[in-house]
Amino acid sequence: MRTLFLSIITLVVVTGVADAYPQYQLSRDTTCTACHLSPAGGNLLSENGYAVAEAVSQFGTAPEFMYGKIPTPDWLVLGGDLRGAAGYLKTPENAIAAFPMQIELYGAATFAKAFSLHFNFGPRPSTVGNEAATSVWSREHYFMWQQKPGENEGLYVRAGRFMPVFGLRLAEHTVYTRRYGGTALFADTYGVAAEYIDPKFEAHVTGFIKDPIIDSVEHYSGGAAYMEYRPTETLAIGAEAMAEISKDDKRYRGGVTGKLYVEPADLLVQAELQFVNQLVDSPEGRGAPKAFVGYLLLTRMLGEFMMVDVGVGHYDPNVRIGENERTGVDLNLHYFTTSHIELVLNSRYESIGLGKGGDPGAYTILQLHYRL
Amino acid sequence: MHRTVLVAALLLAACGVDPSEDDRPRTLDYITSAVLKPYCGNAQCHSSFRQEANRAYDTVTKACETIVAQQDVIPGDPDGSFIDQVLVRTVKRMPYDQPMPEVDRALLRDWIMIGAPGLPDPSTATAEDCP
After folding, report:
1. How far A328 CA lies from chain B's nearest CA (Å)?
2. Which fold would CATH assign to domain A5-126+136-371?
3. Sorting pLDDT into bands at 50, 70 and 90, what band is A241?
4. Are A287 and A281 in contact (CB under 8 A)?
5. A356 to chain B nearest CA, in Å?
6. Which end of chain A is more exposed for a tag (fewer CB within 10 A), N or C?
7. pLDDT per residue as tens digits for the range A200-235
């Protein structure tokens, strides 16, 4: 009997990190740096980000860190995200799960005006057998130089541990173009990035190495580039490339992105299509699966404080082999209650080989997100 | 719009050869990259980062060490191999967070059936014998 079983899972199975909402790009502002301190988006908000957080929430409330009750000096910005989730998974076994998803504190300290140190800190899924040394970590920490301090454009140079900027940068790590597209959960690693942000275009070039300090999720060294051109305030076209080299294989990625804000309908359409050429050493000479991964996302605000996403993803891990590709439909509903509290309902249905390649999967998970 | 998406999905799904003509390599290197890493070696599960249940399947070396230490594969006997049994059991079925295509499970079983090429004999090997 396929059992419905109850499991309370602690940082084991579906933990994650959720960052910025690129859904606001074009519909609210043109760049990630309009709302975030990092040129990649995510984590700490700028003054404008605070204003947006307040404006899109139902009950407002002071949007600053800890409601502004803990003042910080001008050179220090603090923040954090706490997320928990519970829901139903069918993969294809039926399960009800509840789990902490994200507990992270962020900080950014500015010195000598143009330089800053960015870091986050929190618990992580520990390595089994080495729990004492792997219970907490700093997923991101980097030094940054900014050409135009206090502004949200110009040249940025970062060195440290972070996720290379690549693709649509959607928050949900289960989106196919993240999971299979080079920016999987906890794939952050050490690197150096040069990034230029302008209202008309942005470019990010990152060189990275396999994490030399911890047992990491990804084991590649290489480089990534992402460029986006915005011919109008409502249209963005991007191109991406990544090379990843490990002891076991090499992966080369190339792709395009597009974003269109349909103003009359308040509808943002985003898409990414990526080709992946993986080279696996094989004496038989057929170890080169060529893969495609794509995602189409439609986003619309429902009133002033709810946002709905409908996404369609497709991943074909080897175009030569039939019935192992997966197609998923995502439905996400965001409810911004106060400037700090958000409820998110994430749901997915996915099929393998359009139903011919195996059991389908599904989940529906309710997240509670509190931003410090 | 919906029709366009459906047509695009069908076209993409139509790519690929018949699964019965699957000529992908049956080697530890390839099995790790095509099956073990993407389905088992995710961050929260059997990655080097997490090593859930003392298992890591995200590199060839880690996969070999895991199989040798845990005796997850019995070369020549896919039905008796724990690594295949967990894919069809009814409780705590693996992969836990996503369904696995039958064609990739078949590839894994074929590799075990022909003796798990690339893997040192798990009954006598130690981690030092892994690549």
Report:
1. 10
2. Porin (2.40.160)
3. very high
4. yes
5. 9
6. N
7. 999 999 999 999 999 999 999 999 999 999 999 999
